[in-house]
Amino acid sequence: MTDSTQMFTGAPAAPDAQAPADEELAPRASSADGGAAPTLSQLEEEGDVAADYIEEFLDICDLDGDIDIEVRNGRAYLSVTASGDTNLRVLSRPDAVQALQELTRLAVQTKTGGFSRLILDIGGSRDAREAELAQLVDRAIERIEEGATSASLPPMSSYERKLVHDMVGERGFVSESRGEARERHTVITRG
C-alpha cells in the first residue's frame, strides 16, 4: 500500500522531480476486458500519473491542494484536500468530481496504455456521497420493512452501486443492479 502526500503551491517542480518520459512507462494489460488485474506497481504508477495530471489542473486553476495517493481494493485512490477556506469546494460538487475523474482516467490511460478504475475525491466529496447513499439505503429498507416487496434507488455510477450493494448486504438485505447505461440502478429486496 502506498500513502504519499504531496503539497502543490503552484511553484515549479525541481528538475529531478519530473515525471518519467512516456517511453519509460511500462505498458500494461487492460483489466476491463477480463484480463489480469493490475499489479501493485501498476496501480502506484497509475496514482503517480493521475497526481501529476491533477497537479497541472490545479496549477491551471490557480488552486492549492494536497494530493494523497493510496492503493486499496485493486484501485488507485486520489484525495485532494486543502486547509482553510479555499475555492477547492467548487470542484467538490459531485458532477465536477465525476467529470474530473473521467478526464484523469483518460490521462492515465493515455500514459500507461491500460484502462483505469481510479477513484478521485475532492474535498471529502466521496465521504459526503457515501453518507447520502447510506441514507438512501436506510429509507429504502424502511419501505421494505413497512411492507413493500422491493425498493428501487435512482440511477448511479457503478462505483456507487457497489457501495450500495455492500451497505445492503451489511444490513441483511439483497440487492441487484437493473437497467442499461445511464438508467442502471439498484433494486433492494428482502431476499
Strand order of the largest sheet: 1-2-3-4
Beta-strand level of the residues, as a percent range? 15-25%
Give the overall shape.
Answer: globular
Total beta-strand segments: 7
Q: What is the C-level CATH assignment of the largest domain?
A: Alpha Beta
Order of helices and strands: EHEEHHEHEHEE
The whole-number mean of residue pLDDT values reads: 83
- Report how far the terminal alpha carbons are from each other: 36 Å
- How many discrete structural domains? 2
Query: How many helices?
Result: 5
Give the C-alpha Rg.
19 Å
CATH domain topology of the largest domain: GMP Synthetase, Chain A, domain 3
Unreliable runs, pLDDT <50, ≥5 residues?
1-33
* Helical fraction: 40-55%
CATH architecture of the largest domain: 2-Layer Sandwich
Classification by helices and strands: alpha+beta
Q: What profile does the largest beta sheet have?
A: 4 strands, mixed
